[in-house]
Structures are given as structure tokens and as C-alpha cells.
Amino acid sequence: MTQPPGVEVRNPRQYSLVANGRLFPRAPFHFDGTFFKQSHFPNRLDHWTPGLFYQTIRIDNMLLGVKCRDTSQGREPSIELSVYYPSPIQDSVVSKTLDEIAFRYDLHADLAEFQALADRDTTFTDVFKRWKGMRASTQYSLYELLVVGLVLQNTQVRRSVQMLETLTQRFGTLVEFDGVELWSIWLPEDLSAVDEEELRALKIGYRARSLKRFSEQFSSGLIDEVELRRLDDDSLKRELLKIYGVGPETVRIIMSEAFHRPGVFAHIAPWQQKIYSRLFYNQEIVPTERIIDDINRQFGRYSALAVHYIWEDVFWRRRNEYIDWLEAEIRL
DNA sequence: CATCAGGGCCCTG
DNA sequence: CAGGGCCCTGAT
Q1: Which of A2, A212, A242, A324 has its CA 20 to 30 A from that of A118?
Q2: Which nucleotide across the nucleic acid strands is nearest to A208, CA versus C1'?
């Protein structure tokens, strides 16, 4: 494969094990559903096998490698977390890493109220049972998730994969630990000296403008992810929409996965509408307003989370069985 | 070869 | 608030 200009092959940074820790998610907990999202397009930023998940994470200006292993016993959820880095790290860094992982995967979430709503549902009984304890979650920081959201915009999966690959190879970092090679997304300030034309040369099209602009918003300190976590749903949405290149669909993804707001289900993209229509009504097409109303009526403060369960489930099913109507809508 | 739409968003009128 | 335009790419 020929690379666009500016992209070169790099050797991975070698990391070794420097710390271990343990996390105790609130029960019920579903490791695989929470750590690995089957609906996401394939990339090289993480590595999953059942009960095991690898990723990178930035803590205190360090780019760490992290391995999470499911060590749950019966009804007692637990995760063993291993941290990898080229040199020893302080205990404070380890505890920050544990806290950040716990937040990103919403490990302390109280799902009791959601579970009660799910138990009352008669259409997706098996789905809610299969994924009991799953969170709407993400491995990414807000900035990283925005980059992923950006390459998703107005294109097909194949090109999204291509754009993210090109960008990470040009600006990201490759690390190797525990026998796994992973790319990580750059920092917003890494693009400060890069102009829009240079980004366009990487074939990301008009997204170059958004990437440039929102990276500046981040590196200038205008957006503070930790601060945003404190806001109520409406304020958070308002702040997110101020980010250049963020509209209703990207907000939906971010609110659900990065900020764990299970009740925000107010937007359905056209391709999702077709899939929801099939899943919820077994019809070709149902008006989005009706879908939104119905879901909100049934699942209230957990409408987005409920849809997340059904959405992920259909993509997991797709791994094993061929669902023809779904294939037609997904398009690689 | 041309045209078009795709896992949105910005901007304009 | 509806609708045009936008980088690219593969499908038709």
C-alpha cells in the first residue's frame, strides 16, 4: 500500500510492566460488553480478546500502556489492571490511572433502576439478559473520541478506517507491551504547527478544518474534559456543541460513551433510523420522532443506555450470523 | 466516463 | 429552520 506524503513507518516504543492494580466494578458487571464495543469500526488503538483488553492512556503527560483483565469470581466483579511504561512510575500515577479507567468505563455505575426497566421489557428480554452489567463507555479521552467522531462524519466505514490509520501513523505514537502493538492518538498541541493544507494532504478532506479548529480549542485550554464532567446534561450538550465540528450526532456519541449520560436519546441519524425501524418495529422505516418518543416513554432516564444494549447486541450477533437486511445498511 | 451518496456539520437566507 | 455545499472514494 502506498502511503500519503508525510507518513512513514516507525518502530514501536518498548514498554514493560511497571505496576499492577485492582478495580472492583459495581455489580452487575459485564466485562466484554463494557470494554469492547462491537459496533465500533476496526482500528489499531486497542486489542481485545474475551476477558482481556489492551489500550493506551495519557496520565500526567505520560503515555501509558494498560492491560485490563477480567478476574471476576461469581457475582463479585473485579479487574486486574497492569500498567506498562519504559521506566518506573509513581504510586500517584497508578492511582490516577485506576480512577480514570474506572470513570471511562463507568465502573461505579448504579444500574439498578435501568435493570428494573429492562426487566419489564418483553421484546428484548434476551438482549438485556445477555448484556446485563454492560456500560456505555469508551477507552478514549474526550479529544480522542472527537477524532474518532470526526473521521466518522459523512463517509463510509472503509474510509473512516483509512483516515484514522493515516492520521495516527502521521501524528500518533506506536507502543509495544506484553506482546501487543498499539497506536495511540496524538495530543491536540501536536497539531499546532500543522496547517490545514498539510492535513488535507492526508485525504481527510474538509474535516481538516474541524480537526485543526477543535485541536486549537483543546490546546488553548478552552475545553477541560474534567470540568465538563461536572455539568448537567443540558449544559454539557451546550458546551459540546461549541466545539467546532461537533453537531447532534457527535454529541450523542460523546454524551453516551464519554460522559455516561444514559438518558440523552434525542437524535437518530438516517442509517440508524433504518436499523432501529427493523429492530424495534420490524418495519422498513419509522419516523425518527416516533422512535425517540417511544424509547423515551419506555426507558425514560435510561433511554440511550437501553438503545445502546440493543445496538451493541445486533453487532455482536453479526459476528456469528449473517443478517442480510443489516449488511445492506452497514456497508463497508 | 459521469454521477452520486455516504456512520454530519457549517453557514446562509 | 430548511437546504446547499463540502473532501474523497467506491458503487452504479
Answers
A1: A324
A2: C7
pLDDT grade for A326, boundaries at 50, 70 and 90: confident
**Is nucleic acid strand C under 7 Å from A159's C-beta?**
yes
Question: Rounded to 5 degrees, what are φ and ψ at A282?
Answer: 55, 45
> What single letter denotes the amino acid at residue A3?
Q
* pLDDT digits 0-9 by tens, A65-104: 999 999 999 899 999 999 999 999 999 999 999 999 999 9
For the segment A122-138, the average pLDDT, to the nearest whole number, is 98
Dihedral sign for Cα A213, A216, A221, A227, please. Answer: positive
Query: What's A287's DSSP letter?
Result: -
Minimum-distance nucleotide, CA of A159 to C1': C9
Tell me the C-alpha distance between A183 and A168, whole Å: 7
pLDDT of residue A5: 54
Among A261, A150, A250, smallest CA distance to A207 is for A150
Residue lying closest to nucleotide C8, CA to C1': A205
User: What is the rounded distance in angstroms from the CA atom of residue A83 to the CA atom of residue A66?
Assistant: 5
Q: What is the pLDDT of residues A233-287, one digit of tens each?
A: 999 999 999 999 999 999 999 999 999 999 999 999 999 999 999 999 999 899 9
Closest nucleotide relative to residue A158's CA, C1' based: C9
Which bin fits A260, alpha (ψ -120 to 50), beta or left (φ > 0)? Answer: left
pTM of the model: 0.96
The Cβ of residue A62 has, within 10 Å, a number of other Cβ atoms equal to 15
Q: Strand runs (DSSP E) across A242-318, as ranges?
A: none
